[in-house]
Specification:
The protein is of the alpha/beta class and 535 residues long. It has 18 helices and 19 strands. It comes from Zhongshania aquimaris.
């Protein structure tokens, strides 16, 4: 039976608020999107699927490899896209693992299927699937893909993850074979830096464009508008301002201070502060923070305001609930915040503090560009359970790389309650924050709290355990001196007992595998052909 479905020739990445000339994909073209990880994968695939009519998805891996490392929400979103929004889903792999997949062998098998109708192909591959270190071979492979796409008017988008620097350099030299090359850098769980190296659409060709991406209410990607003039080098008039200038803040903060201070403007959210004013001139802007996930957006807003108005305005950030760690506070101050007002400051003290700050000027040196600020944030890609030797290696690497950054780290050692197994104790732990790691060895449970001050340990543990510490464990030891942490890591590294990583991940209360709603068994892994290599 012939396939008579109407296939749209419109192709797009589907990222909201990116200009069409930076997101459209033309037929008969090959595009490459690079990333070191997979945090953005679900949101990007969802954005593409909603903008395009039933694309084909091909994974140069097994279904388990595709979903591995994604949290529960991301796994569910990706599973829904593959099951309901993609026309065909294939997983190219060798069941006997005799040969590893490559983009060259994948194209060979695709040609055997003889797909003549124009399609959009989303192809998930590892960086090692490309001959990135051999320019001639890469050009040859990309040339074959380009010729195939042009012949059948297909659009091919490679989503490539892994050690992207090698392939990025080679791909830049193959710009005549790629109609678009971009890269995604995860800033945290919900924010990404998206850089377009070059992009060709029907309208024009662009190069060296940057966007800050976040996820909207539907878990799709959207760009946060960051005009280029918002840099520390942009000119701005320097006015002394009024000590009692207009207060601009959100509803939550206004409810605390409105009885004592005159408030000029009250809006529902931080974003409306950015969108409601063309000229703030002299003002005291008070932004609200109720979650660590808001830090990047708060830093972006703060940097934009500070770059545009310099010391004409005061920028205060009020912590509505206890959620900021020391590293987050330092990052926001680096972005240009005048003061961080912690949660423990009562409403009465808050009024006095705001009144005092409005009478002083605080000037800090800003990073030259917003993206320089965002990339300077002290973060880690590690999170969750790790084998003891991986735990020791990762924590050691983190501490070495940040030894002179001023960021403090904490290692907590727990001893289980009598009669409670290590597995049961581990099940009471819930690791939610990037950089925090946990392992089991030597009869203890170790939690590494990344970028955490000694005074904040109680809050961090409250967010990392299902029950209070005294109800979950028999005893705890807090190790904060770097030399003491290093000595403990040596013991952890030498240990041979513990819980394997796969079991540990399943036991963690916050681990996606425990509440996994997607059923990868429903995704049939079909080799496009028996993998083999043609010399």
């Amino acid at each position: 039976m012939l396939d008579t479905d109407t296939e749209s020739t419109s192709r797009s990445l589907g990222i909201a608020d990116i200009p069409s000339y930076g997101s459209e994909m033309t037929v008969g073209s090959v595009y490459l999107c690079l990333s070191a990880g997979k945090k953005h994968l679900s949101a990007l695939v969802s954005s593409i699927c909603k903008r395009n009519d039933s694309p084909d998805f091909i994974g140069l891996c097994t279904p388990d490899e595709l979903f591995r490392g994604l949290n529960s929400d991301a796994s569910q979103l990706l599973d829904q896209c593959l099951q309901k929004q993609c026309k065909r889903v294939h997983f190219w792999h060798d069941p006997e693992e005799i040969t590893s997949g490559s983009v060259g062998s994948l194209l060979r098998d695709l040609k055997k299927l003889a797909p003549t109708k124009p399609r959009l192909y989303i192809i998930f591959v590892k960086a090692t699937s490309f001959p990135g270190k051999q320019q001639k071979k890469l050009n040859k492979v990309l040339g074959k893909w380009q010729a195939w796409a042009r012949q059948y008017q297909h659009t091919v988008l490679f989503l490539c993850h892994g050690s992207e620097k090698t392939i990025e350099t080679a791909a830049l030299h193959a710009n005549n074979l790629l109609s678009g090359l971009s890269s995604v850098y995860a800033l945290d769980t919900h924010h990404y830096r998206y850089f377009i190296h070059h992009w060709n659409s029907d309208a024009k060709v662009i190069a060296d464009q940057e966007f800050l991406l976040t996820t909207n209410s539907e878990a799709n990607l959207k760009a946060i508008d960051i005009p280029r003039e918002h840099t520390a080098d942009s000119g701005a008039a320097f006015n002394t301002g009024s000590a009692h200038s207009e207060i601009v803040t959100t509803t939550s903060v206004a409810s605390e201070i409105s009885s004592e201070l005159d408030i000029g403007t009250v809006v529902a959210s931080n974003n409306l502060i950015m969108n409601s004013f063309d000229e703030l001139h002299s003002a005291t802007v008070i932004l609200a923070c109720s979650s660590p996930t808001e830090v990047v957006e708060l830093a972006t807003m703060t940097y934009q305001l500070r770059s545009k108005y310099r010391q004409n305005i005061k920028i205060l950030i009020r912590e509505n609930v206890q959620c900021l760690r020391y590293a987050d506070e330092q990052f926001l101050l680096k972005a240009g915040a005048t003061q961080i007002i912690p949660y423990i400051i009562t409403s009465t003290r808050l009024v006095s503090l705001i009144d005092a700050i409005r009478n002083i000027n605080v000037v800090r040196q800003l990073p030259p560009t917003l993206y320089g600020l965002l990339e300077s944030r002290q973060t880690s890609n590690y999170r969750g359970y790790a084998d003891s030797f991986v735990f020791a290696s990762s924590v050691t690497k983190t501490m070495d790389s940040q030894r002179y950054s001023g960021v403090e780290h904490i290692l907590v050692r727990f001893e289980p309650l009598r009669g409670i197994s290590l597995e049961q104790s581990l099940n009471l732990c819930s690791i939610k924050r990037d950089g925090d790691l946990i392992t089991v060895c030597r009869g203890f449970i170790y939690i590494f709290l990344h970028a955490c001050r000694l005074n904040d340990v109680a809050v961090a543990l409250r967010n990392s355990l299902v029950l209070p510490v005294q109800d979950a464990f028999g005893s705890q030891s807090i190790i904060h001196d770097p030399d003491d942490i290093a000595a403990e890591l040596e013991l952890i590294d030498l240990s041979t007992d513990g819980i394997p990583m796969d079991i540990g991940q399943k036991l963690l209360a916050s681990n996606p595998e425990k509440s996994q709603t997607n059923k990868t068994k429903d995704l049939i892994a079909v080799p496009l052909a028996t993998p083999y290599v043609i010399e």
